[in-house]
Amino acid sequence: MVSRHIPRQHPCIICGFNEPLSEPAAEDLNARGADTHFVVCVDDDPVGTCMLHEDHHPWGFGVLGYSICPDHWGNGYATDAVDCLAQYAFQELRLNKLGADCYATNPASARVLEKVGFQQEGRRRDHAFVNGDYVDLLEYGLLADNWAP
């Protein structure tokens, strides 16, 4: 059996599948270039998800995303998850850069990225339609050389 995980005490981040993948299933996902998805857990209870999408070309770039259940906001779980994904991306996958986006109307999400070391690199005006309004999308980046484990 094959399962992907990042060891972490709090929160634990485990592969977002109900059971370990069989070898053929893992090979199929790899062949299709599937994103890596993780479940964010606290005391074995799921509180959110995070993912890493690798661009499969020589640039060494990946994009990450995360979502924590509102009942668990403010506990540092998103920051820990993003930091774990950065560790995985830079140390295991040897990527050179990570990117992430957040809505300008979500300063808490921007703060998560900034705490891990991401820097704002751009702003796409009226790029997303959220709750009936157009909002700006903030683009963030983190270079492997600027990430501190």
TrEMBL record:
Gene3D superfamilies linked: 3.40.630.30
Keyword Acyltransferase tagged: yes
PROSITE patterns per UniProt: GNAT
GO molecular function: acyltransferase activity, transferring groups other than amino-acyl groups
SUPFAM superfamilies membership: Acyl-CoA N-acyltransferases (Nat)
UniProt cross-references to InterPro entries, sorted A to Z: Acyl_CoA_acyltransferase (IPR016181), GNAT_dom (IPR000182), N-acetyltransferase (IPR051531)
Keywords, sorted A to Z: Acyltransferase, Transferase
Residues annotated as domain N-acetyltransferase: 1-141
A Pfam family annotated for this UniProt entry: Acetyltransf_3
Keyword Nuclease in annotation: no
Family listed: Belongs to the acetyltransferase family. RimJ subfamily.
Protein name: Acetyltransferase
Organism of provenance: Haloarcula marismortui ATCC 33799
